[in-house]
Design a protein that fits this description.
Blueprint: H1 10-14, H2 22-31, H3 36-61, H4 80-97, H5 104-122, H6 124-129, H7 137-175
Helix pairs in contact: 2-7, 3-5, 3-7, 4-5
Length: about 180
């Protein structure tokens, strides 16, 4: 005697594999495997690091007219690693004092952690040397390379099934 399952089969739930969306892949390959927090941390880190680099270069080389003065009226320049440290303290406290394995709070904390880590590590050379060496070429090249490679490895390591699934879909789309 065969029983009828109330749970739809995988192909019924997600449709034809050739028609899956990025959201379907995300739910299946990232959220469904418990990698969501790690993936979001890496993604937020990578995006924030790139945005911060663009903003700092825009300020230095006057690329954007509205980004020109990053000093307070009293002459104080607050480096963005200060904001990163403050956010890391808040996120660390929230994650330890109120642990959660799933949900919107975990997503928010993961994103904030990645953002804060990027803000902090972008100016690693400053707090390592205790002086403003942000634009010293030898300091910036090594930090940029290390952060970029580490982030790409982290993205690939935590989201490899997701990126493979997206790649297969893109390849199938080209063959049609």
């Amino acid at each position: 005697m065969r029983t009828v399952s109330s749970v739809p089969a995988d192909h019924e739930r997600h449709g034809d594999p050739a028609h899956r969306t990025v959201v379907d892949h995300y739910r299946r390959q990232i959220r469904g495997t418990g990698r969501e927090a790690r993936f979001l941390i890496a993604l937020a880190f990578f995006l924030t690091f790139g945005i911060v680099r663009f903003i700092t270069y825009s300020i230095r080389y006057h690329w954007l007219p509205f980004l020109h003065d990053n000093v307070t009226k009293s002459g104080l320049h607050i480096h963005h690693f200060v904001y990163g440290i403050i956010i890391l303290l808040i996120v660390g406290y929230a994650a330890l004092a109120f642990p959660e394995q799933r949900g919107k709070r975990l997503i928010l904390l993961s994103l904030l952690y990645g953002i804060a880590a990027a803000l902090t590590l972008d100016e690693f050379a400053i707090w390592l040397n205790l002086e403003d060496v942000y634009w010293a070429k030898q300091e910036r090249e090594s930090l940029d390379a290390a952060a970029g490679v580490a982030t790409l490895f982290l993205l690939a390591g935590t989201g490899a099934p997701f990126w493979r699934a997206i790649g297969r879909d893109v390849a199938r789309g080209r063959r049609r």
